User: Fold this.
Amino acid sequence: MTDGPHARERIGYRRSAALPGVEVLDADHSPRAWREVSDGFAVTFIKTWRGQVYYRGRSHAVEPGVAFCNHHGEAFAATPNAGTVGSFHVLIVKPETLTEWLSEYQPNAVSPHWRVVTERISGQLTKAFHGFFASFEPEASSLQVQSAAAALSDLLIRELLTDSRTDPLHEGPALRGTARMRECLLEEGFDIDLQTLAQRAGLSRFQALRAFKRRYGLPPHAYQLCVRVQRAKGMLRDGAAPADVAAHCGFVDQSHFIRVQFPICREKTKRNRSVSARGLKVGAQFRQISGYQT
Assistant:
C-alpha cells in the first residue's frame, strides 16, 4: 500500500480518435514538482493547485482561476506551495493543429503564439474548459468531442492567443447554413462529425457551432443527442428490445442510454411514480423512460 503525500495522486493521459493532435493530461491530488518540455502548445487549467512556475527566465504565481500557457519545445518547472497537493488539467495541442484552428478563425493569421504566460481567465472560458474535459471520454460521439473542442478553441483564441476581442466572422450567411446542418443531423446517421457538418453548410467549424446554437438553442451534439433519445423512446414504446434500441440509436449499451436519458426524465418520473431510481434494474429503467408498461 502506498503511503505519504503521493498516496492519492492520480495522473493520466487522454486522447480521442475524433480529435487528432490533441491530448489531455489529468493530475489529481499531486504533491510533486513538475519538470517538463511540452511537445505541443499547452494550457494548464488549474482546479486546486497553487504554486510557482518558472518559465522563460521568470517565476509566475499560479492558482485556481489562472491559466498557464507554454509553447512547444520549451521547458518549465512547476513547484507547489509547501505542504500542499493540487489538481489540474493540461490541454496539449500539436503546433499544426493549433495553426489550423487559428486559420479557421482568422484566415490571414500567421503562426500561433500565446499572448500571455499566465492569465486570469473568464467565466465563459472556464465553462468551456469544463465542458471540453467532460466530453473527452470514450463514450462521447465524434460530434460531441469536436463541438466541445471548437467552442473551447474559439475562446482560447479570443482570450489567450490573439489580442482581438471582436468576432471577425459574419453571422448572416452562417445562420442560413444551419438549416443544412440540421438536415444532416437528421438524415445522415449518428457518426457525422463537426468538420463534415461545417463543410456541408459552407462554413468554418467556428461559424457552424455558434450559428447552430444561436438558431436552435443547442450546440449540434446536444441537438443530435435529443434526436437520438427521442428516437430511442419511440422504438421502446413500439416494443423493441432495449439492447437493440441502444445499438440502433448510437449508444454503447443500455447503461449508457440510461445515464444520458434518465436525468432528463427524472422529475417527470417522480411525479408519476414514487420509485427510487437507484433500485430499478436496467430493463425496468428502459421501460419507465419510454413509457412502456408490461
Notes: The CA atoms of residues 42 and 59 lie 17 Å apart. DSSP finds ten helices and ten strands in the chain. Strands lie at 10-14, 22-30, 34-37, 41-46, 51-55, 58-62, 66-70, 75-80, 86-93, 118-120.
